[in-house]
Amino acid sequence: RNGAQSEVPAGTKGSVGTAPFRSAAGPPPTGAACVFVVRRDQDIYMETLRKLFNESHGIFVGLQRCEEERAARARNAQLVQVSKNYRSVIRACMEDMHQAASNSAFFFQVSILSAMELIWNLCEILFVEAAPAGPLLLRLLDWVQLHICDVDNMVREVLSSENPSKHKLFWNVVDIFVLQGRMDEARHLLSKEAIANPTSMKMYKILDDLMKKMPLGNTQTLTEMELKWQHWHEECQRYLQDGTFASNSHMESICKILLGDENAILEKKELMTTWYHFLVTRLLYSHPTVKPMELRFYAQSSMDMFLGEESSPEPLDTILMAAFEFELHQVIKECSVALSNWWFVAHLTDLLDHCKLLQSHNLYFGSNMREFLLLEYASGLFSHHSLWQLGVDYFDHCPEYGRVYLELHIERIPLNTEQKALKVLRICEQRQMHEQVRSICKIMAMKALRNNRLGSALSWSIRAKDAAFATLISDRFLKDYCERGCFSDLDLIDNLGPSMLLSDRLTFLGKYREFHRLYGEKRFSEAARLLLMLMTAHIAPCSFWMTLLTDALPLLEQKEVIFSAEQTYELMRCLEDLTAGKLDRQKFQDDDVETMKVEMLRLALARNLARVIVKEGTLEGS
Protein transport: is it a keyword of this entry (predicted)? Predict the structure, then answer.
């Protein structure tokens, strides 16, 4: 999967020669100039599979959280239930696609999902449930009945006819029921034959009795099962040798099937359609107590007998054969090659890992197979504009490399909106990913600044704890104030709190806004002290000193004396410092407005000083 192979479009991974796995797209026209858009996991972009990804995510997370504290038996039952939940999601997606099936792409995807459920169900029986001899065959029968030879339409057609036993498909339906071990349904149909042909009543009753007495899962021990089955088998053999059914080829054929006659079963090859159906039927009537480890021998011989020399196994056959041979890693490998996305192998491997079946298999670079496949699947999710959120949880449950992958992928998420940025930020903060938090905040602050949204830019820079950027934005706020005469985003500036200590300039911005608030509330003495502190503490930019001194003018002109003599001297010193430099002196000489401001300030300060001296002298005299 690494290197050059990872660059192949996902759709090409399906073109391996079997219908459920074949790529839907044909080759481009000869000589045509084509541009191929290569995506990591093409299926991620299919709207019809969103349900599969979303619902299976919940099952996956639930398994990781709830699995550990269970007792062994309860744990096994829980794992089987989890497996069934995964299969129910696959089946629900198939049903949704059936309803929406409007073109070949839908039918192609349904066939892929059908093959996935077929493989998953077999793995559930053999590996998750680990059914022992006896129950094993019953599970395989359920598997065949669920996935292969759906005869419901054929049955409806036969039963809805005026004379079902005369219908051309009547015996086909009976044979399919027998081949799938559905004895009650086969007997029900045969009863219609007996009613329509009284001459065959004796044969029907004997065959019906044989089918009714067939021992299948009704006993408690294997020994008892084998004894009963042997006795029943001998009874079937006796009736066949006596020629009881010789006058009716259909019933005779059914009796041969009950005896496990391989040639008689293979004559119904077209009704079974697959070698694994033939395998289960063969075991049902020849070795119903087959042990799990004996399956490999019956599976290989059944495939050889069914396919013959005219056809070779396809990828789906190879995968199922690997399962019957209990070659778990080969199943995962073949599925990785044949299926068009990582969903199946990632979730199946995770489930099998919880079953403690993959503990000894580590990959050459250190990560185990479960983690490797989960990382690949989650990486594909991160390429989607919304499914990336699901990928976070998958990375969280990869203990070795998950954190590293998450850090790399989360930095590549396009932050199109503030809402999305906040979502990504929350994920990073929950996981103490401090570097990513700062990176996201800086990106959003820069975007806001470019769009002249100073409040948002300041908020993001504070969140990033970026003192330099906070200083830059504070300067923009002050510049904006000088141009417009008022502040924007007052709510933000008024509620900076301890955040204003991030940088001197931000502190100045917050305190300067506080000065305006105090002045607006007519708390002139407090406003005067704060204004003087801003100038003497040297946290105000030199370019803003004239603005601060100009703000002192209304306070100097108040009827009541606000500034003390000492404070007035401080203001005078600040004014002289401002005008003392050569460049500043030249600036004031060239600018009439600035010169006028300086003169007005000197006059106001002198008048205030005179008033203070008179007032303080009067107080001292009294």
Answer: yes
pLDDT per position as a tens digit, 248-284: 899 999 999 999 999 999 999 888 889 999 999 999 9
Whose tokens are 């792409």? That residue is 105
Question: Which two three-digit tokens encode residue 530?
Answer: 């704060």
Contacts of 108 (CB under 8 A, 6+ apart): 22, 24
SS3 label, residue 564: coil
Q: Which of 283, 288, 253, 286 is nearest to 271 (CA)?
A: 253
Tens-digit pLDDT profile for residues 479-515: 777 777 777 766 677 667 777 777 788 888 888 788 8
In order, the DSSP letters of 599-611 are: HHHHHHHHHHHHH
Euclidean distance between CA atoms 203 and 366, whole angstroms: 67
CB atoms within 10 A of CB 417: 10
Which residue intervals of 537-591 are DSSP H helices?
Answer: 545-556, 565-580, 582-590
Distance CA 307, CA 147 (A): 19
Look at the block and give the residue holding tokens 């010789």.
Answer: 246
Residue type, 382: F
Considering only CA atoms, which of 277, 275, 274, 255 is closest in space to residue 264?
A: 255
Q: Is 383 exposed, middle or buried (0-12, 13-18, 19+ CB in 10 A)?
A: middle
Residue 592 CA to residue 566 CA, distance in Å, equals 30
Model pLDDT, residue 89 = 95
- Whether 37 has a pLDDT exceeding 60, the answer reads no
Quick one: tokens of 540?
């105000």
User: Which phi and psi angles does 390 have, rounded to 5°?
Assistant: -70, -35
Phi-psi region for residue 487, left (φ > 0), alpha (ψ -120 to 50) or beta? beta
Task: Note the pLDDT of residue 505.
Answer: 81
The DSSP code for 29 is: P
| Residue 435, token pair as written in the block | 């570097």
How confident is residue 388, by pLDDT bands cut at 50, 70 and 90? very high
Q: What is the dihedral of CA 212, 282, 294, 113, to 10 degrees?
A: -100
Query: In angstroms, rounded to a whole number, what is the distance separating the alpha carbons of residues 364 and 453?
Result: 51
Phi/psi of residue 272, nearest 5 degrees: -90, -35
What are the domain boundaries of the chain?
Answer: 144-328, 440-521, 523-621
Distance CA 78, CA 101 (A): 34
Instruction: Using a pLDDT cut of 70, give the percent of the chain over it.
Output: 84
Q: Helix or strand or coil: residue 367?
A: coil
Chain-centroid distance, C-alpha 427: 15
For position 29, what pLDDT does the model report?
53
* Residue 362: strand, helix, or coil: strand
Q: What is the pTM of this model?
A: 0.78
CA distance 147 to 115: 9
pLDDT, one tens digit per residue, over 96-139 is: 887 766 666 677 888 889 999 999 999 999 999 988 888 899 99
**From residue 495, how far is each of 30, 446, 509 by CA, in Å?**
67, 22, 12
Radius of gyration over alpha carbons of the chain, in Å? Answer: 42
Beta strands in 152-256 (DSSP E): none
The H-or-E segment that residue 188 falls in is helix 183-196
With tokens 């000065």, the residue in question is 515
pLDDT at 216 over 70: yes
Dist. CA 531–CA 511, nearest whole Å: 9
